[in-house]
Amino acid sequence: PTATPAPVVTPVVDTAYSVMVLNATPESGLATQMKDVVVAAGWLTDTVTASDAGSEDFAETTVYYAYPEDEAAALGLAQVIGGAAIAQTDVYQPIDTPDAKLLTIVIGLDRTAAGATPAPTP
Question: Is pTM, for the whole model, over 0.85?
Answer without folding.
Answer: yes
